[in-house]
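Subject: two folds for Thursday's group meeting

Dear M.,

Sorry for the delay on this. The cluster queue was jammed most of the week, so I only got both jobs back this morning. I'm pasting them in the order they finished. Each block is the input sequence followed by the predicted structure tokens. Could you check whether the formatting survives your parser before we put anything on slides? The first protein is the one we discussed after the seminar.
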Amino acid sequence: MEETLRQLGEIALGSIPTILLFLIVYAAYRFLVHKPMAKVLGERYERTEGAVQKARADISAAEAKTSEYEQRMREARVAIFKSQEARRQAALATRAEAARIAREMASAQLAEARKRIAAEAEAAKVQLLPETERLANEVIRTILKPVSMPAGGRL
């Protein structure tokens, strides 16, 4: 057993330079490779996440602009429809006014024509009155004219 312990002691003593070399290599790895690589990976992660967050912000800004654009388009359409409706109402009002004026003019012309016809009828009555009296007298004379009897006295 002593032999085993002595061999273990020799192995432990022989492994000290290996352990020291391993610790030096580990420390060098930590300072020369691991820390700079961790730093680079951290920066890369930050940049990647930053780019992703910036992309998300850009997407949300684009969506906001799109919704604002769509809202403006809806408002423009409503304004156009209102403008068209106003023009249509104005055209209808103009047409109605023109029809009213035409009706008034037609009514005035009709009243004028009725007055003229009534005046012409009166003038015709005045003109025909002497003629009717003459014709009535002539008809009466013709009817009341003594009938001449034929020779025998019979009709």
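Second protein, same layout:
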Amino acid sequence: MKVPVPDEILPVHRLGRVHFVGIGGAGLSGIARIMLARGVTVSGSDGTDSPTLHALRELGATVHLGHAAEQVRDVDTLVVSTAVRDDNPEYVEAVRQGLRILPRSAALAAVMADRRVIAVAGTHGKTTTTSLLTVALQTAGADPTYAIGGDLAATGVNAAAGTGELFVAEADESDGAFLHYSPYAAIVTNVEADHLDNWGTEAAYVAAFDEFADTIDPEGFLVCVVDDPGAAALAERHRAAGRRVVTVSAREPGALADVRLWSPGEHYLADALAALAAARELGFAEDDLVRGLVSYTGTKRRMERKGEVAGVRVYDSYAHHPTEIAGDLAAARAVAGEGRVIVAFQPHLVSRTRIFGAAMGVALGAADEVVVLDVYLAREDADPDVTGALVAGAVPLPAERVAFVPAFDDVAGELVARARPGDLVLTLGAGTVTEIAPRVLELLADG
């Protein structure tokens, strides 16, 4: 469900008691964490319990399991994620009461008030780049507030309210959220068609990034990774329009030429270079920033090492677009060394799979063995004509090296049956596929 952004976004101290529908999600949980740190009375609901909900309760939030109308009868503002349906009882009750109802983007904008915002956008690499920038700034002596789409490995959280003037935010383009932040500065990692269920056409998607760049403070700046044609074109257009534009390229690593980063891969180097460039433009010392980038230990669900049993290494990552799949498999190949790469991929969204399913399959061909799950539905209804078989059928490997396994509980066993000592198993996707890695390790331990 898409909730309109109000004409006036109130600062957080004027929102009253705030209730989050879907509080356990990566986006809403981070905003809730910042609000709690700023003294706001926070409640929320979610379908299943999780460590995220436990952490929010410990910070003072009232968190309910399940959704019910009575849970919003004592609040002033309702915040909803795009995954919430319009028949959700809490949303229905909020409408009946005439409560203030905000989408995620407006809630994030509310906690950004009175801060100098650096927004990180792009089709791929947003979470990693936002994380790298946050850690670099912290090491250089800043204490930024940050909101990231994943948990920093070093802190175990996806957001924190800092004492400094800076606010580092992952700026999501999927539903147009990034158009409402008015940042001082921004990073764009790449611009490649995605989320066409919302934007309709590639042209509209690209135009949204131009609109995003137009929201940057005239005194601020834009950092673009020019290895990507879409970001390079964006940089050229906005430089011609008179904006201060800084460009970086992984083919010109500069200060990071002899630095060992947390993960191999050209796209990770590009993310680090973009973070370094933005922080340097803000006036921080390069040596301190590089030290921070070197100390970075990753973000959960971004090429995250889950463990090793019986000589088999298991990693988990969030890649769900063909370009992201290719990038993570290239990194996995570098880590695997002489071992094989065995990947389990869960397509995310019916609409994305319909458009990019064949390209996903082609990208998966960079692995040695491929297991494809069925589509993770998220906010969409199932389509019998769009399943994981569409992806599996496009993988350019011999049939015996590819399997479509629609039963979720059978996937871990399928991976273990294919793995041998020295191999690297990688679970990929934005849905529940992340739950498979621990099961693989348990099965390996059981022999």
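Two things I noticed about the second structure. Residues 90 and 96 are 10 Å apart (CA to CA). DSSP finds 15 helices and 18 strands in the chain.

Cheers,
T.
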